[in-house]
Amino acid sequence: MSVNIVKHVDRMVKIQRVLVSVSDKSGLEGFIPAMVEINPKISILSTGGTFTHLAAILGEKASRNLVQVSDYTGQPETQGGLVKTLDFKIYLGILTETYNEHHKKDLVRTGAGQIDMVVVNLYPFRQTVAKAGATPEDARANIDIGGPCMVRASAKNYLRVASVTDPLDYAHVLQVLQKNNGYMDILTRFELAKKAFKHTAEYDTMISGYLHGVNNERLESCYNIQR
Description:
The protein has 12 helices and 7 strands.
C-alpha cells in the first residue's frame, strides 16, 4: 500500500466550510453565530436534528450560510439517521491535502469542496448504558459510526482541518479565529487533533468494556432470536 507523505502545508488555513453534527448541542447558540460574524460567507454543512437546531439559531442567515448534508451529497438520509455523513464527497472534502494535484482533480471531478473544520461529538453511549434497565440493544443503537469516522478523518488531516470535539473548546477556537481574521493555525489544529483521537479512543474503550460485560444469557434475553 502506498501512502501520501506530505512535505508542504499551510501554517494558516481560512475556515470557509464547516461540518457540524453533534449530539451535545450546548454552546452552539454562541459558537455558530460568532463563526458567521467572523466569516459572513462561511458555509455550514449539517444533518438531522443539528441542522434544525442551527436553522433556529441562525434565523434569516440560515438560507445563506446553512446547507443540509443530504443536499450537498445528493444522498438523502436513511431511516432513523442510519446513514447521513458516510459519503465520498464528505470524506474527500475532509481528507484532501492542499498541495496534492490528484486530490484537486478529484474535487473537481466529484463537485466536492474542501471542508476546513469538523465539529462533531458522539452519540451519548455512556449516558445510555448508565440508565436503569438499559439493554444491549439500547447500547447497540447508541453506538456512533459516522461521528468517529469524521472525527478521525479530520484529526488525521490536521495539515488543513480543525477537528473540534468538545463544546468547552468553542471559546478558544473563536479566540484563535478572531485573532487571525478567520484563519486557523497548524499548532491549534494539531492540538485539536490530539484531543480528537483521545476522544474516539475513550469512546471505543467504553463500548468495548460494556460489550465484554454482557453475558450470553443477557444478550439472548434481549432479542426475539429467529431459529
